[in-house]
Amino acid sequence: MARSEPGALGGTPAALETDAVYADLLTQVADISDQVVFLQRLIPQVLGMTTDAQAAGLVQEAAALLNTPRAALFLDGRWVGGAPGWLQGCAAPQQPQVLSTGRVYTGPPYWDAWRPTALLSVPFPRGWVALWGKRQFQAGERRLLEAFVSLLDSALQAVQARQEAEHHAAAQRDRVQARAVWRHVVPEQLDDPPGYRVEVHSQPASDFGGDFQFQERDWLVVGDVSGKGLPAAILTAMFAATLPVAARRDDLAGALSEALYRHLERAQAFCTLAALRLSPTGGVRVLNLGHPPALLRRADGTLERFAAQAPPLGTFPIEDLAGVPVWLHPGDQLLLYSDGLSEAERGDGAAETQLGLDAVQQLAHAATTPRRFITGALQALHGYRVMDDLTLLAVQRDPAQRSVTLTLPGSLDVLPDVGEALRRVGGDDHPARLGAELAVTELVVNAVVHGGATRITLRAHADADHLYVTLHDDGTAHDPTAQPTGPAGELREHGYGLLIVRRCTGVWAYDRSGPLNRQTLQFRAPAP
Questions:
Q1: If DSSP codes are grouped into helix, strand and coil, which group holds residue 352?
Q2: Residue 503: CB partners within 8 Å, gap ≥ 6?
Q3: Across the chain, which distance is largest between two alpha carbons, in Å?
Q4: Where are the alpha helices (DSSP H) in 11-79?
Q5: For the chain, what is the radius of gyration of the CA atoms?
Q6: What's the predicted TM-score (pTM) here?
Q7: Over the stretch 282-304, which tens digit does the pLDDT of each residue have?
Q8: Rounded to an integer, what distance in angstroms lies between the CA atom of residue 105 and that of residue 110?
Q9: Are residues 388 and 215 in contact, defined by beta-carbon separation less than 8 angstroms?
Q10: Which sign, positive or negative, has the C-alpha torsion 260, 262, 268, 274?
Q11: How far apart are CA 69 and CA 496, in angstroms?
Q12: d(CA 212, CA 225)
């Protein structure tokens, strides 16, 4: 019997199996060749893709290479370039799939209907690709589309990464520029006014913040706008623009309130403010609008507090708030800070504890210089989380100038010491010395006899024309400046002593500072 040729009809089983393997191999080679040609056409375009619209165009081109009339791309929750209504109603596939003809209804009322048609769909993380418009899809076409979608997904991820990098770089440039502008508006350093030394530490919670420190004419101003970040920085810029005009008026608080109250109210914002008006002679007017207490550290370490005299700007209209006059005698300091210091938090595992105002006062007591206050505060914050903007400002009167501090028992026997102290600071020939000696002696007598004072502290310094005196006593609260005068100017009580005080002073102010009475006096040569 003659042997059959391979592949001929009636061949042996072994020959038929060989023919089948050979045919399958040819099919795979053809598929690989088709895939290579397909990807060669699309790879350069996919790699050059920069937009979602280009991705949708490439899907259409891939469909054309597969001899498919229609295609659509669903990306990030939307159809790029549109899709027929019947397709929009289809659920996203979970894996590559072919829905055979008749499985999906594409007829009326859908526009551009293709019927009957099969549907080839391939998902990827951000969406899916759909091809339709012919009666069937071959396995090779499915594999080609899967390869294309995988390539498209990688390209879309690269585009997204580039866009995010460009956006981040642009945002970073904007932040750098915004911080530079904010730092121009809110300087890190302030100039030393004549006769004073100023130190500042400014630490925003983010690139820029709502704390600020300004210097305008004879004013030093520290403030804290509600909120953080850019909104607070915008309000800070409003203050920076308003302050130069407001500082020309004696009523700084009223001027700022007049200019900013409506803006702050509409923005549902407010601003705490601490302001110091400095004179070269040591006179300071302290203004506090809802800010943490300002601290006056005397040269001997004694502390005085200046609590808020009015609510923050933006809560109520403010008018005619003069502030508290005090003297900074040589070596004295005024210390301002924002609540970023006192409200810094430390976690102990169970509860949060704040640094607190008591700790701030301890820092102030230990601060012999402005620099020591700031370095001490920053050291105290080790282990604490500063949750808000942090601003520290310290201003000290030149300690090299001549001054006197005298602490006396509450006794009339000390009256000669009062006169001697004033002579030491002003000299025997000072034009205001005689009136100052008579007046301070009268005030000491009143504190001891009428107020029951057991301890009196006198601080004084002088310039060529004036003597500046701060008098503290621990007697009962009693305001001698409120004593009424008669029709001819006579005082109704205490004889002519208080009349002498009024005749000899350019400034005479009373305040209760904690447990102490404080009188702030500026003496001049007596009027004729």
A1: strand
A2: 435, 526, 527
A3: 158
A4: 13-47, 52-65
A5: 42
A6: 0.70
A7: 999 999 999 999 999 999 999 99
A8: 10
A9: no
A10: positive
A11: 112
A12: 8
